[in-house]
Amino acid sequence: MRKIPVTVAVLGATALMALGAAGPAAAGGPREAQIQASPCWWNGDRFWCNNRSGAPVFSDIHGSRIVGYMYTNPSWFGCRSEGDPTGGGGPHPNRWVITTADNGAAGVMKDSDIISETDSLPACGIS
Description:
Layout: H1 8-27, H2 30-35, E1 41-42, E2 47-49, E3 55-58, E4 66-70, E5 75-77, E6 80-82, E7 95-100, E8 106-110
Antiparallel strand pairs: 1-2, 2-5, 3-4, 6-7, 7-8
């Protein structure tokens, strides 16, 4: 059996967001403070965020149908919207973020699959 060390990279987006939401005092100290997610950033024409490679991109904020996957990281995102629960937990359990999957299909991704803090993205009125 191969041993895999547990590192921040192996924790995944959900664990990172959970640690970041708990804060350093609740999570156990200064080291956890360094794990908190950095915000998405603007590069002059769109917002970019760090995300989980292989995350599904859905047709709508109800998670009705997978239209593609996001293997690139970082990836660009348009805006954020609150919708049906994503089932992913984290600090924004109802947040969906507009993007385009690597196959070119437009859709939304669960906030829990985005490692960066998405509060910096503009709100959009999708339903």
